[in-house]
Amino acid sequence: MNTKLSNNLTLLFIFIGITALISVFLPDEFLSLRNFASMGRQFPEYGLLALANMLAMTTGGIDLSVVSIASLSGVVSASFLSQYQTVGMPVGTVIVLGILIALAVSVVCGLLNGVIIAYVRVPAIIATLGTQGLFLGVSIIITKGHGIGGFPDAFLFIGNGSVLGMPTQFIIFVVIALLAGLLLTRTPQGFSMLMYGSSPQVARFSGIANEMVLIKTYLLTGLLSGVASLIIISGVNSIRPGYGAEYLLLSVLIAILGGTDPVGGFGTVLGLTLAIFVMQALQSGLNILGFSPFFKKFMWGLLLLLVMVFHYYRRMLAQRRAIRKSAAQNAPPGSKEAAGGQPA
Q1: Phi, psi (deg, nearest 5) at residue 206
Q2: pLDDT tens for residues 250-264?
Q3: How far is Cα 225 from Cα 110, in angstroms, rounded to an integer?
Q4: Alpha helix segments (H runs only) across 59-154
């Protein structure tokens, strides 16, 4: 059984196990349609940020600025949308421009990250840690620390509406997740990202423009953060700098739990989606049981450490198996190694 299938099946069984366990203790609350609808409205905003970090991790990097990009693009867009009654434009035009503004700001932020990482050659974790503070600081300067609210009613459909009974933000997440899956598996950019994550040197010798791969990757992570910001501000009809700060830890945890190799070279959208379902089921159960937000942060941090340790030992085991297999293939016929035994 290959690693991808094994990881996805493990996540599926974990999700079923968590759902069954919580359902035993809270059958009426957890298994209600109301709770499932609530879950479908909660995870897309941090699910998109997790998807963004998964793309960054496939190249061996990480984007610690995703929440700050969402905050800045949301603040700039909200500043425009909140003036819809005074700008002298049709409401529909204001909404379209507000969406485009959020996406444009997020793309510029992603471009800045990509340039710093690709051309200045600052490690991704350091570069995005710095821009995290930069983008958040600009958001605070724009708002002076206050929230912005009061958007057109039609705009709120993004974060509060439903289509055929399904939450709008859930549909947006599914569409973007499918596109991201196609990107990784069916496009030259996706192949180049995975190749670069496996070995930048091999990628360059294969004719891949490493710098452009990184820039496009962080453009995508920025764009996904911008989409998340639209869901956030439309869902609560307001925005304040630093909203969703806890989403950063969740986005990293979900990406790694979904099987993405933090060293680079491997990641699947299906695994990430299953990891989101696991985390949302666990989070919903903890909310119903009345656990405090501080305990949940402790749980996410502990779970991240455990998952990292698990991936480390699984990687070491895979390397040992590869060494034994190579030794068996290269051993003389009739030797102990060729028969599948341990090398002397």
Answers
A1: -85, 0
A2: 899 899 888 888 888
A3: 9
A4: 66-81, 91-118, 124-143
Domain count, the chain: 1
The answer to whether 148 and 240 are in contact (CB under 8 A) is yes
- 59 DSSP assignment: T
- Rg (Cα) of the chain, in Å, rounded? 22
Neighbours of 207 (CB within 10 A): 7
Tell me: the pLDDT tens digits for 288-317?
777 777 787 788 788 878 877 877 777 788
Q: Name residue, tokens 């510029």.
A: 108
Residue linked to tokens 């990293």: 252
Structural contact between residues 233 and 59, judged by C-beta atoms closer than 8 angstroms: no
Q: With the CA atoms of 76, 109, 106 and 308 taken in that order, what torsion angle do they form, in degrees rounded to the nearest 10?
A: -120
Q: Could you tell me the CATH number of the domain that includes residue 266?
A: 1.10.3470.10
For residue 188 the two structure tokens come to 């030259």
